[in-house]
UniProtKB/TrEMBL annotation:
<dbReference type="GO" id="GO:0006631">
    <property type="term" value="P:fatty acid metabolic process"/>
</dbReference>
<dbReference type="InterPro" id="IPR002123">
    <property type="entry name" value="Plipid/glycerol_acylTrfase"/>
</dbReference>
<dbReference type="GO" id="GO:0019432">
    <property type="term" value="P:triglyceride biosynthetic process"/>
</dbReference>
<dbReference type="GO" id="GO:0031966">
    <property type="term" value="C:mitochondrial membrane"/>
</dbReference>
<protein>
    <submittedName>
        <fullName>Glyceronephosphate O-acyltransferase</fullName>
    </submittedName>
</protein>
<dbReference type="GO" id="GO:0005778">
    <property type="term" value="C:peroxisomal membrane"/>
</dbReference>
<comment type="pathway">
    <text>Phospholipid metabolism.</text>
</comment>
<keyword id="KW-0012">Acyltransferase</keyword>
<comment type="similarity">
    <text>Belongs to the GPAT/DAPAT family.</text>
</comment>
<dbReference type="InterPro" id="IPR045520">
    <property type="entry name" value="GPAT/DHAPAT_C"/>
</dbReference>
<dbReference type="GO" id="GO:0016287">
    <property type="term" value="F:glycerone-phosphate O-acyltransferase activity"/>
</dbReference>
<keyword id="KW-0472">Membrane</keyword>
<dbReference type="InterPro" id="IPR022284">
    <property type="entry name" value="GPAT/DHAPAT"/>
</dbReference>
<dbReference type="GO" id="GO:0004366">
    <property type="term" value="F:glycerol-3-phosphate O-acyltransferase activity"/>
</dbReference>
<keyword id="KW-0808">Transferase</keyword>
<dbReference type="GO" id="GO:0008654">
    <property type="term" value="P:phospholipid biosynthetic process"/>
</dbReference>
<dbReference type="Pfam" id="PF19277">
    <property type="entry name" value="GPAT_C"/>
</dbReference>
Amino acid sequence: MASKAVYSHRDPLLKKRDDFEDILEERRKTSDLRYALRCYTPALYKGLTPCTVSDLKTMVLQSDQLLYVINQVSKETGTATDEIQLEAEAILEEMAHRLQLTTVRFFAFTLSKIFKTLFRSICVNEEGIQRLQQAIQEHPVVLLPSHRSYMDFLLVSYILYTYDLALPVIAAGMDFMGMKIVGEMLRMSGAFFIRRSFGGDKLYWAVFSEYVKTMLKNGFAPVEFFLEGTRSRTAKSLTPKLGLLNIVMDPFLKGQVFDVSLVPVSISYERILEEALYARELLGVPKPKESTSGLFKARKILSENYGSIHVYFGQPVSARSLAEGRVDRSQFNLTPRHIPSKPSEGIQDFVNDSAFRLVRSQEENMVLKPWVLLAALLLQNQAAGNKLGVLVEDLTEQAVWLRDLSRQFGAFLHWPDHVPPSRVVSSSLSLHRSLVRVSEGRVQLNSESGSGFPPAAMTPEEELLSKAVVVLSCASYRNQVLHVFIRAALLACAVHSVTGSRKQEIFNTFSFLRNMFSNEFILRPGAEVQDFEEACYLLVKSAVLQIHQQEVLVTDSGHRTLAFLTSILDPFVQGYQMVCRFLCEEATETLTENQFVPAVRKFFIKHLLTGGLKYVEVLSSDLQKNALAALLRLGAVQKLRGGADQGTLKVNTVMVNSLEDTLGGKLPTQKTLAARL
């Protein structure tokens, strides 16, 4: 049954989490063919209207909403309705899945072979599976997995087939359709293909939304899509995209279904298949086009060990409970339900708030492996200028300290306590030997990414970019723990940069930093006070701060934790500062948004080579784009629209300079108007 609880984040240690079972254990003992061909009889939605794939298309094409839009487009364009109807049929034909059990069985057999080769284990919380099984029978279900790898795409389907649950239909980008045979097989395993953007195309939007809503209302299958919209190349959660969430909420909001169960699914990889590929993309190397030949070329990964995967099916969240007291659904009685209308500001705020809550729920149930902590420590050691590396014994001591701190902060940490810490660290270093080396008892990041050229044959810039591949790959693991520390880290930075100990000033700085980095991390709009209170609670509980009515004091034992927290945020602070400096010093009057990333990368490389920058990870295009998005949102930069200046960036140098100085602690933050402490 969908949970009525809207998650409270006050004390993360109060959150009970389920145990895991390794589903590959049985696969290693029994026949994969027998597994693929076994009897498959999933329990279905009690309100299911039995229909074939063909019936589903007919229902969409004959729906009142689509027929209304076809008439509207006909009037606007002067095109005959029959022609537009044919266009709608073509769009639906290109989009629609053709779910077939025979193809699912083929994938079940093939993926079993692949998974057993690549992974030590695939661990699933069976209590979550039981909750999902009940939810599927009671209400239409929407599955919302995190998205860190191509592997996510079929992993959820593989698990549901294993547990005899209804297979989902999955929203997939159109680029997968170009994979010839594989694209069609994905379609027959439940994928439906959508364009990456279709902005003002009314007909496409109507076909797409009606198709998804028809599947949901009729209980044809659970609908699965990625709230983040695309894979995260940095392993941080991305700001949620609201298009599909708006669509699946619509039948509930308009009273066409009693409720919709939204199920966050957290997929955690001990080692990500695409780690080096992502790092290169972030450095400006174009993403390889999805193709069948590319898939076969990637077979060499089958000789590698990628550790374990943990998949956590979260508590189903009731759309009805989310909307209770927040949405007046009677507003939808004022116009016929088949007439498309833009959601009101209140509905948009509600959907946006729900999306952030769901992504945070995904984050909280991410299982963190020991390597995530080691990556954070190794990056900090490197940034401190420790060229000789860190002694294995010291790294182990630091890792145990950080393990205990993470647990105090409520991290979902998979650290085997029955194994000596030295062996846990050594096992993690061995699994990630492509990123680290151990020599003479010292650990350090590899200095190059295996480019094939000896360092002597490389230019300083090539050497830096080769090193950056390793650093960004390592940072992608460190980033997995950021959601645990981000609120406390923002508070630590505020305490560090404020002169004095007045609580109000610290809150103002906290709010400024939180606002500045809200494109970078999952920070729910309007929740500044709650986040500040949570950060205070965690740092008081872990004996880092003492907070009196109007004063915030650092304890004698709290300096180590405070230093770690400020260091974990420091690369982002320095990166944003340098983006501000670039815009004030180097940006021309004709600089466009498309030219921004290559130009700022060149500026960063120059400063890294001359020693003016210490964090190599500022070369990440993700950080650079997020910094620009923050400056656009704050009004320090404007993007011109229309005419010859389309896309040109207009920089308010006074404001950008002020933001740079404030980030560096040179200027006090202005009093926050909405402060309620």
